[in-house]
Specification:
- Helices cover 62% and strands 6% of the residues.
- Helix 1 links the parallel strand 1 (2-4) and strand 2.
- The chain is mostly helical and 103 residues long.
- Strands 1-2 form a two-stranded parallel sheet.
- It contains four helices and two strands, in the order βαβααα.
- The chain has helices at residues 12-20, 37-42, 44-72, 83-102; strands spanning 2-4, 24-26.
- The protein folds into two domains: 2-72, no CATH class; 76-103, no CATH class.
- The chain is elongated, with a radius of gyration of 19 Å.
- This is Transposase, IS4 family.
Length: 103
């Protein structure tokens, strides 16, 4: 399974965990602090193409989440106290957004 993620998920612990379950995580390129500018420039074209490809896959998903947040305020769940309550909240919000959109 391949997962497309943000630069925040680029750490080696996450990469190792994903590899242990036969998965791969693809993130835009992020150079470690202190990387020499010469090295950055040497790989800039390839890094930019790779980052653009990953971002191109993630963009529609990010747009859908943004639309869902704007239409339903799905992130406001302060009164939920259980896992089942959270699941009900999420599916009700998604259902309301889709019904509002298509009906």
């Amino acid at each position: 399974m391949v997962t497309f993620a943000d630069k925040a998920y680029i750490d080696s612990a996450m990469q190792t965990q994903m590899a242990s379950v036969d998965s791969e995580i693809l993130t835009p390129v992020k150079h470690p602090k202190g990387t020499c500018d010469v090295i950055k420039q040497m790989f800039a074209s390839a890094d930019n193409l790779y980052s653009a490809a990953v971002s191109r896959v993630r963009q529609p998903i990010e747009s859908w989440f943004n639309w869902l947040i704007q239409k339903t305020d799905i992130q406001r769940a302060s009164k939920i106290r259980s896992t089942n309550g959270l699941i009900v909240h999420i599916f009700n919000k998604i259902n309301a957004a889709l019904c509002n959109r298509f009906l």
